[in-house]
């Protein structure tokens, strides 16, 4: 039933067809007309019912491959998933919650682009190479869990450098593509405190985007699966603060703007600007499966049978009237 798109559920169609068939057979058995004539009427009725069944079932022809209109954008998200991103000083809850909401908003605004996703904690992970399957990327975001405080070994802003470089190079090799990057982080470094890799070396591979910063100078406390996170030296609740200097350095290196994400800041102007600078390209996608209606092929046959049935009924009605007219004339 994969290539059917019925107007009503197939089981209901089958029940209706069986009932119609039983009624027609019953009429045929009880008919007082000649067996040839009644059988011919039965065959016509079954043919009409069968064609109606097929048409209402809406058979579809499956076709692999299609020309689709796509955006020429490769949009790459680099998402900080270190424990500090679960600090509670984000514009709408935790920093991480705000960041994932921003990714969703950007994807909706740039729908039709290719999207990629890198996350980083102690190490970077390419969660999604560039893909047009937006649901997959959004689904991967939902799988990211709060980090375990006992697993964390400090964080550094250079952790995603190599994976970021590889994905930018892969996008740059494509013809007529624009590479957009969104680096989402609070900029806090709790590891070596150094940023040994210069993001400026990647600037020539980037056509636009932004570094989005989360958190406040005052900072926020964090929770993981064990509860509140405490400073091991002071035994007070640990406080994480945004480091905008690190974020601005990354933005300058990549050649994009830095945006501190607060309630008063909007992503709409940036999304609109990126969208305005993009173009539409036509690609042949062989992984696309399209379905085309074929029920209309059966409509002429059904129409022909219905016209034949109408002509037979009209002819029989005329004969009955003529016969009744002759009887009436004889009585007079």
Verbal overview:
With 332 residues, this protein is of the alpha/beta class. It has two domains: 10-59 and 294-331; 68-285, Rossmann fold, CATH 3.40.50. The protein has eight helices and twelve strands. The protein has helices spanning 10-30, 35-57, 95-109, 134-143, 161-172, 244-254, 268-276, 299-331, and strands spanning 60-71, 73-80, 114-120, 124-131, 178-185, 208-213, 220-221, 223-224, 227-228, 239-240, 257-260, 280-293. The strands form four sheets. It has a six-stranded mixed beta sheet with strand order 4-3-2-5-6-11, with helices on both faces. Strands 1-12 form a two-stranded antiparallel ribbon. A two-stranded antiparallel ribbon has the order 7-10. The two termini are 64 Å apart.
Can you lay out the helices and strands and say which pair or pack?
Blueprint: H1 10-30, H2 35-57, E1 60-71, E2 73-80, H3 95-109, E3 114-120, E4 124-131, H4 134-143, H5 161-172, E5 178-185, E6 208-213, E7 220-221, E8 223-224, E9 227-228, E10 239-240, H6 244-254, E11 257-260, H7 268-276, E12 280-293, H8 299-331
Parallel strand pairs: 2-3, 2-5, 5-6, 6-11
Antiparallel strand pairs: 1-12, 3-4, 7-10, 8-9
Helix pairs in contact: 1-2, 2-8
